[in-house]
């Protein structure tokens, strides 16, 4: 009799998600991969039972018969209730341990509808595989999938003819594919001859293995199945009554992917000084599959790892993605720009979202600088062409030496005024004004002077702006010239 293998390779790469070095889109990066691969052990979360698996062609199969559920007596029918039910051959639990359970078709399907494909293109496979009694992520094989299995192990020159995708061809087909499928090793289907329960009678253990498909036969009372026999090198596909109980081999369901989501992004600071670091904060980043996500932004659109501007380009973010961010230094030049951002789950991108920001590299322009002084105080005023902060540097030399506290930083202004106190009387002071806009572009005014009053009872001194001072000097020069001309004229007249 054929027995299941007691030893198989168990490869445990890691638990949860694994960080792997690889190449995506021509760039070597770290990315998250599913650590489970066909050939690893499948652990059924319902009862912690472990099953060997095998990759045949492009299909991943259980390499053991399913053995889940509570054993009931062979004389009773399995029913639609809250309990998964199975039969063990001859009502002996040891047979379930060796050969797996036996299941009526309705119990195997968990009382869902048949996958009624025709078995031939274009309606050749189940649109939605039926999980039935299989573990999560696995399903009851379709008639089409059993045909694909036969073709995968076929070595003759007539595989397409021997294993047609139809529901007309039945009976023993192929050449030696049955021998291949019932060979027990780590790279084979390793079919087990678990027998059957037919209308209350157990039989055929050690000689026949029958496996349910999800496809009903010619009527609603029978179903297609795959059969292998100890004494036959070929494969049989046949239709049997739903009421009999046979084995189940589950096949892994296709791994589907849901594209990630991204609702919007916001730029900060905005406006920003050229050359400074811009931060782009996402909102609504999510992934229904809870995949690790990458966050890409650029200023041309359709950002990828190859052209993203984010310094965090190779960073993967785990759910709930709260730490996701993008930052980079913007170029100079006064302009308004658009950023284009999207997330990536390793397979698909989210929809693209955009935001704008403004680059400001121009400092405020200062004008109308003036000062009014007394013997111990002075008031400095000026205007700027854009809102800015307010500060004055002053002292008795052009090194200044004293600065006022910078004000108007929360709400910047265009009209500025600073009061200086504790000045020395009858003293000449140098000063210059400073204003910084909201993105730290700073302007520093030219040197100006004023003289405090208190020089031996003289009239209060008024200090003027440099422009006013020049005008006053010019007026004095003009007056002196006029006086000189008058004197020359008077002497000439004598």
UniProtKB/TrEMBL annotation:
<protein>
    <submittedName>
        <fullName>Uncharacterized protein</fullName>
    </submittedName>
</protein>
<dbReference type="InterPro" id="IPR007110">
    <property type="entry name" value="Ig-like_dom"/>
</dbReference>
<dbReference type="Pfam" id="PF16656">
    <property type="entry name" value="Pur_ac_phosph_N"/>
</dbReference>
<dbReference type="Pfam" id="PF09603">
    <property type="entry name" value="Fib_succ_major"/>
</dbReference>
<dbReference type="InterPro" id="IPR003961">
    <property type="entry name" value="FN3_dom"/>
</dbReference>
<dbReference type="GO" id="GO:0003993">
    <property type="term" value="F:acid phosphatase activity"/>
</dbReference>
<feature type="domain" description="Fibronectin type-III">
    <location>
        <begin position="363"/>
        <end position="455"/>
    </location>
</feature>
<dbReference type="InterPro" id="IPR015914">
    <property type="entry name" value="PAPs_N"/>
</dbReference>
<dbReference type="InterPro" id="IPR011871">
    <property type="entry name" value="Fib_succ_major"/>
</dbReference>
<dbReference type="GO" id="GO:0046872">
    <property type="term" value="F:metal ion binding"/>
</dbReference>
<dbReference type="InterPro" id="IPR008963">
    <property type="entry name" value="Purple_acid_Pase-like_N"/>
</dbReference>
<feature type="domain" description="Ig-like">
    <location>
        <begin position="320"/>
        <end position="445"/>
    </location>
</feature>
């Amino acid at each position: 009799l054929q027995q299941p293998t007691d030893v198989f390779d168990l490869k445990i790469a890691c638990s949860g998600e694994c960080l792997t070095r690889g190449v995506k889109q021509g760039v070597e990066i770290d990315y998250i991969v599913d650590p489970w691969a066909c050939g690893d052990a499948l652990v059924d979360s319902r009862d912690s039972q472990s099953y060997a698996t095998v990759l045949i062609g492009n299909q991943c199969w259980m390499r053991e018969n399913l053995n889940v559920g509570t054993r009931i007596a062979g004389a009773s029918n399995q029913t639609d209730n809250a309990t998964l039910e199975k039969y063990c051959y001859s009502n002996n639990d040891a047979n379930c341990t060796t050969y797996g359970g036996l299941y009526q078709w309705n119990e195997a399907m968990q009382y869902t509808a048949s996958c009624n494909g025709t078995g031939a293109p274009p309606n050749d496979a189940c649109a939605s595989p039926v999980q039935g009694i299989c573990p999560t992520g696995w399903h009851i094989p379709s008639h089409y999938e059993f045909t694909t299995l036969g073709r995968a192990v076929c070595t003759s020159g007539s595989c397409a003819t021997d294993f047609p995708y139809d529901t007309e061809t039945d009976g023993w087909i192929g050449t030696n594919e049955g021998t291949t499928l019932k060979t027990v090793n780590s790279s084979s289907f390793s079919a087990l001859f678990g027998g059957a329960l037919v209308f209350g009678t157990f039989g055929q253990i050690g000689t026949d293995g029958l496996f349910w498909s999800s496809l009903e036969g010619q009527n609603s009372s029978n179903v297609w199945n795959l059969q292998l026999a100890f004494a036959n090198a070929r494969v049989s596909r046949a239709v049997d009554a739903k009421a009999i109980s046979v084995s189940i081999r589950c096949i892994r369901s296709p791994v589907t992917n849901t594209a990630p989501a991204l609702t919007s992004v916001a730029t900060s600071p905005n406006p920003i000084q050229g050359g400074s670091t811009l931060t782009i904060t996402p909102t609504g980043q999510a992934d229904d599959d809870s995949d690790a996500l990458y966050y890409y932004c650029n200023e041309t659109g359709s950002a990828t790892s190859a052209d993203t501007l984010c310094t965090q380009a190779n960073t993967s973010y785990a759910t709930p993605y709260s730490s996701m961010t993008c930052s980079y230094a913007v170029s100079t030049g006064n302009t308004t720009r658009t950023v284009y951002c999207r997330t990536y789950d390793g397979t698909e991108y989210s929809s693209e979202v955009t935001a704008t920001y403004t680059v400001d590299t121009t400092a405020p322009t200062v004008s109308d600088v003036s000062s009014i002084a007394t013997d111990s105080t002075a008031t400095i005023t000026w205007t700027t062409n854009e809102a800015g902060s307010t500060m004055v540097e002053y002292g008795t030399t052009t090194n200044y030496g004293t600065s006022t506290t910078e004000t108007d930083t929360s709400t910047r202004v265009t009209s500025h005024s600073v009061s200086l106190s504790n000045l020395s009387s009858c003293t000449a002071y140098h000063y210059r004004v400073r204003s910084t806009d909201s993105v730290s572009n700073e302007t520093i005014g030219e040197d100006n002077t004023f003289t405090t009053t208190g020089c031996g009872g003289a009239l209060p001194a008024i200090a003027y702006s440099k422009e006013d001072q020049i005008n006053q000097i010019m007026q004095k020069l003009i007056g002196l010239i006029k006086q000189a001309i008058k004197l020359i004229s008077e002497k000439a007249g004598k």
